[in-house]
Automatic annotation (TrEMBL):
Single GO biological process annotation from the record: phosphorelay signal transduction system
SUPFAM superfamilies tied to this protein: CheY-like
Domain Response regulatory: residue ranges: 24-152
Region annotated Disordered, chain positions: 1-23
Post-translational modification 4-aspartylphosphate, affected residues: D84
UniProt keyword annotations, A-Z: Phosphoprotein
InterPro entries: Bact_response_regulator, CheY-like_superfamily, Sig_transdc_resp-reg_receiver
Official protein name in the record: Transcriptional regulatory protein FixJ
PANTHER family: RESPONSE REGULATORY DOMAIN-CONTAINING PROTEIN, STRESS RESPONSE REGULATOR PROTEIN 1
Biased composition (Basic and acidic residues): 11-21
Gene field: fixJ
Length: 156
């Protein structure tokens, strides 16, 4: 049975690396094995990773970060989000739709979506929601790492 993470905003950012200066990734995936494998690969590249199994946590982060005087500290901010598209209850695309509808997109980090259902329609839906990347499963983890590196370096 998958272990759920607490939803409390004060507990959302969690270090998984010693370096406070390394980029921070919010990783959202409902498959615990995939979540752990991707997390390990990103941490080996020097990223800090916060793992979540629900896309709703991304929405909470963006809403919280959009509030005046309620921002996370610089060490707790996410530099990118990697999210599965299809998950129980709410997937990554639905989360991004809500974030956009709440006018919180500007306070949210850029996203890379991963999906086992990478048909043309899914790609079009993702592109309509913003400047996002979509990576179809199965994929080479090195391709994901390259996309994360490119995404983060484009923000500097």
């Amino acid at each position: 049975m998958p272990t759920e993470q607490p939803n409390e905003l004060s507990k959302m950012p969690e270090d998984s690396s010693d370096s406070k200066r390394s980029p921070h990734i919010l990783l959202i995936e409902d498959d615990e094995e995939m979540l752990n494998m991707l997390s390990e690969a990103l941490m080996q590249e020097g990223y800090r990773v916060t793992k979540r199994m629900k896309a709703f946590d991304w929405i909470l982060y963006c809403i919280h970060n959009a509030g005046e005087n309620m921002s996370f500290s610089p060490d707790d901010r996410f530099d990118a989000v990697v999210s599965d598209i299809r998950m129980p209850k709410m997937g990554g695309l639905e989360a991004l739709r809500i974030i956009n509808a709440l006018n919180c997109a500007e306070t949210c980090p850029p996203a890379i979506f991963i999906t086992a259902f990478g048909d043309d329609e899914t790609h079009r839906m993702a592109e309509k929601l913003g400047d996002v990347e979509v990576l179809d499963k199965p994929f080479d983890v090195n391709d994901l790492i390259k996309k994360v590196q490119k995404l983060i370096s484009s923000q500097i």
